[in-house]
Amino acid sequence: MLAWIILFGVLFPVLFIFISWIVTKSGKLENKTFRIPLILTGIIFLGGMVVVLPFVPQPRLVNLYLRFAVGIPLAVFGIAFRIYPLIYFRRMKTRSDLVRPSKLVINGPYSIVRHPQYVGGIIFIIGWFLIWGGLYSFYILPVLIIMILLQAFIEEKYILEKEFGNEYREYKKKVGMFLPKVRRKG
Predict the structure, then answer these.
(1) Is residue 70 in a domain?
(2) Are 167 and 104 in contact (CB under 8 A)?
(3) Structural domain that includes position 98
(4) pLDDT tens track for 80-117
(5) What is the CA radius of gyration of the chain?
């Protein structure tokens, strides 16, 4: 069972990121024929792994305090940090889709990290896996995080830098991708 989980959890993300990179780099992301299946595949895989994996028979963490006292707050915070940037985009009267971003949003949650939605998603996944306590879930967690990091890198390089140029490069210097940058006073 573990071998299948690792096989599916490693090969599919590598294939997905490679296809995502090819489609994005080629500029075909604007074509709905490519975009919709790519997005759905990512959602089905990531969602499937996150939702189904904790319920697969596997060894479990026995420390309920760790599982619930840490897992539940992480999951709730992750959901909030995943949803708030979408609400913020609406307030700023812009779209969150990457095909044709209408303007660069660099304030609010985007002044803390460049990808708050992904950060929220990662925090939620960690909390969710803790709540259920499945050890195999934690084995696949680094693969899921790397998949999210690579997707963000592809979006930045082939969409956001192309669309916003120097303005985006300056923003990258000031704001961390997934972790806030420490700013020195002076």
Answers:
(1) yes
(2) yes
(3) 2-174
(4) 999 999 889 888 877 666 556 778 889 999 999 999 99
(5) 18
Judge whether 149 and 175 are in contact, CB under 8 Å.
no
Nearest to 99, CA basis, from 154, 28, 170, 42: 28
Q: Which residues contact 175 (CB under 8 A, 6 or more apart)?
A: 106, 110, 111, 112, 113, 114, 181
pTM: predicted TM-score of the whole model, two decimal places:
0.81
DSSP string, 136-147: HHHHHHHHHHHH
Number of domains in the chain: 1
Phi and psi, residue 176, nearest 5°: -70, 155
Domain assignment of residue 58, yes or no: yes
Q: Which of 81, 87, 143, 90 minimizes the C-alpha distance to 118?
A: 81
Its sign, for the CA torsion 145, 13, 80, 134, is: negative
Confidence of residue 118 (pLDDT cuts 50, 70, 90): very high
- Distance from C-alpha of 141 to C-alpha of 1, rounded to nearest angstrom: 17
Is there a domain that residue 91 lies in? yes
Any idea of the CA torsion for 92, 120, 178, 35, to the nearest 10 degrees? -70
pLDDT digits (tens, 9 = 90+) for 5-28: 666 666 666 676 677 767 667 766
Ramachandran sector of residue 93 (left: φ over 0; alpha: ψ -120 to 50; beta: rest): left
